[in-house]
Design goal:
heterotrimer; A alpha+beta; B alpha+beta; C alpha+beta; B: alpha+beta; six-stranded mixed β-sheet; about 20% helix; elongated; C: alpha+beta; four-stranded antiparallel β-sheet
Chain lengths: ~180, ~1000, ~90
């Protein structure tokens, strides 16, 4: 075990959390991420028992989740794998595909609502040009947010994950918290 | 304060405000215009050119006259229309465009000089002498003519933006809009109902018409309540839809807090981008006036506006108790007489241009008559009525003018939609070629009667919904009647005195005649010559009247004369809200490196590289000049070891059985032969043969590569690689994805870099034999942390780049500092990085400009002729192959001095012309290694001119210096150190 | 503008990067006689039609697909959008 001490994408020792009325923001540095792309003509594996979803969709298993990122491409995520070698673990359960470690390529911010989906829809309306009605539970998409590119994964009515490149973590946290505060503050 | 009975104001909520420093009181529900009127203030501004006294003319956003500066200090907002400024407690406003007080404007002298200021006077008067324009005329004109002034302080308020999606956007919440929204709302469609007013209802709030035999405001309230309760309907008051864009995208501004003293913690305005499957344009109509002599005095209003002030705001302009007159060319004007009578206002009567005009009640009708003059210095006190050639003066307190209604076709003409003349309505209505999916309804479509507008709103919504496969339910509308609407085509009262057409720009009938006499025959020329239709109101109350006057002069019909179409925005949109709140630091999000906080803690300064912030240098206490710091950092790399965060370089993970073949086609040089565990420098060309980007390519496995790009090109190179794969060679088995952010990558450079790294890597032999120049490996460091090590060098020294998962970047940096303390390890920033690479003759964006070739860098041989790659064919074309400029080093001759970057290179004694130009300086710095200033540059046949003394000249700033041509590799030209 | 993405439905044009004429798909054979002239044509010469135009768009803030979008340059009407993958696959069959 290395004696180097990791920091979160926001630069902290521990995951940051904040609450704005019914909305909660939480940094999720524990989520292991790796991209999975099929080889040409290859068939889709079922890593961790996941049936890899079609365009615009996400699946959430007991242990792992997957969301579609492009034709024949997915992002696979498993909580609790932030500091391991997640790509290596994924390779073991998904042979014959191209896998790239992405855990530290991105920062995952979890937005949850105590008052149902409407607060999350309202937050989305302030940040992304995606129709919330087209981003219900089980949907995932990539789009622009304040000049950044983000993945949006709607895990349930009251939970949306916003995932951006790690270097944008502070800018994204700022954007999310300003919008949440204006809506709920 | 004088108020009529009734109205939609809350008399229990008085609101104090000031205008020009004097205190007044209005009520909740007032606009600034209605509150001023109720306080007897009719003079509210001065006109643009002649500084004539002006009063409120309209009751909505079309207002040409009543422009004020609202609020104070940094929040002062000039040119605010008092007619749409919602009154709040503590509101402060000032009038504009006068020198001295509003009542005694010194520039009113312009009015006496008006013969000088006829149409086109700028163009004619200020021609000569030429030099006077900038120094004298323009500054003077700008002071005298012009509306409000900016505060010149930063806007203290926050703004926001957002995105909305709906099935049906209803623009306007009047009779037609409410009926449309109700229809769509009940159908279950997702509806947005936007209205610029703070209270829904549109003209229903201003007319006395009954709906189901009750005041229309009752029906409005009931519909509003029903819509508000529907989860599929979003009601947006104070929201102006200002533009129609392609494919059903609409721009709108919501004035979230303009009706409050300050926005507090919230935002002032929000810019909404609304994506609507269909839209109903229920924007109503704007009344036009009838130009007649001296028609611009305060107290002369549009007749519909007069009704609005009386019915909605319970007030009237002019002297209390004095009789009010109406001047009309149709039945509609008579409504004003009826409504005023109902409120107990004394009437002079209705001056109707028609010989056989009917009276609709108990008041006098001056049939076949016109108003031919007015009196009253600060407000109308008398009008001259002429009938059958006989003129007679009558005392009045105010005059209402009704010239017919123009459907508000503004948004319908945004996509080059041409309005169509309707001879029955005497108005332009939206044409069939307007924006797709936009359905005009109600008064905006020429259906201005109350009952007609309600029915038309249902019709339009039903049609729009049918278009998207939604069936609308039957909607029962309230019983309504349409007032008589006969009118005569009567456009202006001929006469010798000035009759204003465009109040805001002081354009009169005479000006239009003059423009015509000066051969301005097209509407477009007329507008530009006279300035008609310009400025804040964009001629909303003037354009059609001007067109009619022009038609009359030319003897053509109105449609033959032309029409005016409109561009966004419908009303002015502030730049602050267009920015959407992204200001200052948040104008563009910053990307931070994994070692950003660590560097900041060391006192680093930062520089922007694209969106990234990179450490520029790490000044130490006592270093009082940046060069001291940069020289020290560069020397440390040459003599000991330096560390630098290079995470920002793009990293693209490339996998697949054809990855090697794919990279062979993307890179100009051979890549397929690269062995696993090795790195190669690569050049990418554009398809036109010019250099595009450079970087390294590491082979981690048989079918696994990591491509690095320059920081600036990380995105574009990835895009081009996807293009190459998807568009050119889809048959190849290759997968790629960016991993730039995943790895914190630290350059460890200098003769002691190996020693330093040996202290932290786990069980890996870093000897020159085991891990030579251009080797790479996946390994672990610091007891098991996975890492990637590349032996590559940008500085020319023995050097490595070490990558670890980004979350460990800062800890690694600290560990390297700790472990290398005795070695003199030194963090360095982009400035020293630049010095080191210039000393070594390595190219960056300053050399790879998009107009340079591989040969110019001395790398022509890297472009393989044995294989195809992007740009290979074109790189061999004559023009590029003949390129003779080559990268050289340059050193000052004689006294050392900075070589100005960007200087052009000439043979000594040659003239400075394009023909004699031999190249240019691309990069320059002080080199602590060389001990003098140095530079890189492209010079014609430079590779064969070592030792020659030439001139670097910057004629723009009068700089020139003699420089010696030397090798671009100032340091270790044989390349021994990096292989050591 | 809205681009009708074949997999994802209508998406705002701001998510896309525009490249231009879809003839860029037809890269000349580098080994054929007259390749240089063919490349000159390919790289530099474009039709600029007022009307129907096939053009390349990249879904940069999306699924990273290259699309061929058929657009009327006069009205901005989008007449169709296909994945380049499908266009290329179709061209080979």
């Amino acid at each position: 075990m290395t004696d180097l001490t990791p920091v979160t994408a926001l630069g902290d020792a521990t995951a940051r959390q904040a609450r704005f009325g019914a909305l909660r923001l939480a940094e999720r540095p524990d989520v292991g991420l790796a991209s999975l792309a099929l080889r040409k003509g290859g068939s889709a594996p079922a890593p961790f028992g996941l049936v890899l979803p079609g365009p615009g969709k996400a699946v959430f298993g007991e242990k792992a989740s997957a969301y579609w990122t492009g034709p024949d491409q997915w992002m696979i995520e498993v909580p609790g794998q932030g500091t391991g070698d997640f790509a290596a673990a994924l390779r073991e359960v998904a042979p014959g595909v191209s896998i790239t470690e992405q855990t530290d390529g991105f920062t995952v911010f979890e937005v949850t609502s105590d008052s149902g989906g409407a607060s999350i829809d309202a937050l989305m309306a302030k940040l992304v040009n995606v129709d919330p009605a087209a981003l219900g539970p089980g949907r995932a998409t990539r789009t622009g947010l304040h000049h950044m590119t983000v993945f949006l994964v709607r895990r349930s009515q009251d939970r949306l994950d916003v995932i951006a490149m790690r270097s944008f973590a502070r800018a994204l946290w700022h954007a999310l918290s300003v919008a949440a505060e204006r809506l709920e503050g | 304060m004088t108020r009529l009975t009734g109205g939609l104001i809350d008399r229990d909520t008085p609101l104090d405000f000031t205008f020009n420093g004097r205190s007044y009181t209005g009520f909740a529900g007032d606009t600034l215009a209605s509150a001023l009127m109720a306080n007897g203030v009719d003079l509210v501004g001065r006109s643009f050119k002649y500084h004539r006294p002006r009063g409120v003319f309209a009751a909505g956003s079309e207002e040409p006259n009543a422009l004020v500066t609202l609020r104070e200090g940094a929040r002062a907002e000039p040119n605010t229309r008092a007619t749409v400024a919602e009154l709040y407690a503590g509101l402060t406003a000032r009038s504009q465009n006068h020198v001295g007080t509003l009542e005694r404007d010194l520039l009113a002298v312009n009015d006496l000089l008006s013969p000088m200021f006829a149409a086109g006077f700028y163009y004619k008067t200020f021609m000569w002498p030429r030099a006077f324009w900038e120094k004298l005329y323009e500054p003077a004109i700008r002071r005298a003519a012009g509306l409000g002034a900016l505060s010149l302080e930063p806007d203290p308020d926050a703004y926001d933006k957002g995105f909305l999606h709906c099935d049906l956007l209803v623009i306007g919440a009047g009779a037609a809009g409410l009926a449309a929204a109700l229809t769509a709302g009940r159908a279950g469609a997702r509806v947005i109902l936007a209205d610029e007013d703070f209270r829904p209802g549109g003209r229903l709030l201003s007319e006395s018409d009954l709906l189901d035999e009750a005041p229309a405001s009752d029906w409005v309230a009931a519909v509003h309540a029903e819509l508000a309760a529907l989860p599929n309907v979003r009601i947006m008051p104070r929201t102006t839809v200002f533009g129609v864009y392609d494919h059903g995208i609409y721009g709108a501004v919501e004035r979230v807090a303009d009706h409050l003293p300050t926005p507090g913690d919230g935002v002032r305005q929000t810019l909404w981008r609304i994506t609507a499957k269909r839209a109903v344009l229920a924007a109503g109509a704007i009344e036009r006036h009838i130009p007649f002599a001296d028609n611009d005095r305060p107290g002369i209003l549009l007749a519909g506006a007069m009704r609005a002030y009386a019915n909605r705001w319970a007030t009237l302009p002019g002297r209390a108790g004095a009789p009010v007159a109406v001047f009309t060319n149709g039945d509609d004007g008579h409504r004003t007489a009826l409504d005023l009578r109902a409120k107990g206002v004394p009437l002079l009567g209705v001056v109707d241009t028609r010989e056989h005009a009917q009276a609709f009640g108990d008041y006098e009708v001056f049939r076949g008559a016109t108003v031919t003059g007015t009196r009253g210095r600060r407000g109308v006190t008398a009008i001259e009525i002429t009938r059958g050639g006989k003129a007679k003066w009558h005392d009045v307190g105010a005059l209402a003018v009704a010239g017919g209604w123009n459907p508000n076709v503004h948004l319908a003409s945004h996509h080059r939609g041409r309005p169509v003349w309707n001879p029955d309505l005497l108005a332009f209505v939206p044409g069939a070629d307007g924006p797709r999916g936009l359905f005009p309804a109600g008064a905006a479509a020429g259906q201005g009667g109350t009952g007609a507008a309600l029915a038309d709103g249902v019709r339009a919504a039903t049609a729009a919904l049918a278009d998207i496969g939604v069936t609308a339910p039957e909607v029962t509308l309230p019983a309504a009647t349409d007032f008589a609407s006969a009118q005569a085509a009567f456009w202006h009262v001929p006469g010798k005195r000035r009759a204003w057409v465009d109040f805001q720009n002081d354009v009169t009938v005479k000006d239009i005649t003059l423009a015509h006499n000066e051969n301005m025959r097209s509407v477009e020329h007329l507008k530009r010559w006279t300035t008609l239709g310009m400025a804040t109101d964009q001629g909303k109350t003037a354009n059609i009247s001007a067109l009619a006057v022009m038609a009359e002069i030319t003897g053509r019909t109105i449609p033959e004369t032309g029409t005016t179409v409109f561009r966004p925005p419908y009303t002015g949109v502030s730049l602050s809200v267009l920015g959407g709140g992204d200001t200052g630091k948040h104008f563009r999000p910053e990307r931070l490196t994994p070692t950003h906080d660590w560097a900041a803690a060391q006192g680093a300064t930062f520089t922007e590289v694209g969106a990234w912030l990179r450490a520029q240098m790490f000044p130490r206490a006592g270093e009082d000049h940046w060069r001291t710091t940069v020289d020290r950092e560069a020397r440390a790399v040459r003599s000991a070891v330096g560390i630098c965060d290079v995470t920002t370089l793009g990293k693209i993970d490339v996998q697949g059985t054809d990855a090697a073949e794919f990279l062979n086609r993307v890179y100009a040089n051979m890549m397929a032969t690269l062995k696993v565990g090795r790195v190669r420098y690569g050049l990418m060309l554009r398809e036109d043969g010019h250099l595009y980007d450079d970087g390294t390519c590491a082979r981690l496995g048989e079918d696994h590569f990591v491509v690095t790009t320059t920081t600036a090109n990380a995105g574009p190179v990835y895009r081009n690689m996807e293009f190459a794969h998807q568009c050119l060679w889809p048959e190849l088995d290759v997968q790629m994805i960016s991993t730039t952010d995943a790895w914190a990558q630290i350059a460890v450079a200098g003769p002691k870099s190996r020693t330093l790294l040996e202290r932290i890597v786990d069980d890996t032999d870093l000897s020159n034999e085991a891990f030579p120049f251009m080797a790479c490996a996946e390994l672990t460091i610091c007891d098991g942390l996975r890492a990637r090590l590349f032996r590559i060098s940008f500085s020319g020294e023995l050097a490595y780049e070490l990558a670890v998962p980004a979350r460990y970047g800062a800890a690694l940096m600290a560990r390297l500092m700790e472990a290398g303390e005795d070695l003199g390890v030194t963090p360095y920033g982009t400035e020293a990085l630049g010095v080191l690479r210039i000393e070594k003759g390595h190219a960056t964006g300053a050399e790879i400009t998009g107009q340079t070739t591989a040969s110019m860098l001395g790398l022509g041989k890297m472009v393989s002729v044995k294989k195809d790659s992007i740009g290979a064919v074109m790189s061999r074309r004559e023009g590029l192959a003949a390129e003779a400029r080559r990268l050289v080093g340059l050193k000052p001759v004689g006294d050392d001095a900075p070589i100005p970057a960007g200087s052009h290179l000439f043979i000594k004694g040659a003239s400075r012309t394009l023909e004699t130009d031999q190249g240019w300086v691309t990069s320059a710095c002080y080199s602590p290694g060389v001990g003098s200033h140095i530079a890189l540059g492209y010079l014609e046949h430079g590779d064969t001119r070592m030792g020659e003394v030439i001139v670097a000249a910057n004629p723009l700033e009068g700089q020139e210096m003699a420089v010696e041509v030397v090798s671009p590799h100032f340091v270790d030209p044989e390349g021994v150190r990096l292989r050591d | 503008m809205l681009i009708p993405h074949p997999l994802l439905g209508p998406r705002d044009a701001q998510e896309f990067t525009y490249l231009g004429d879809a003839t860029l798909l037809d890269r000349p054979d580098p080994d054929a006689p007259g390749a240089e002239a063919a490349f000159c044509d390919y790289v530099f010469l474009r039709d600029n039609p007022a009307g129907v135009h096939r053009e390349l768009w990249f879904h940069e803030q999306g699924d990273r697909s290259w699309l061929v979008v058929t657009r009327d340059t006069v009205t901005h009407e989008i007449l169709g959008a296909e994945l380049v993958r499908d266009v290329r696959a179709g061209a080979r069959t």
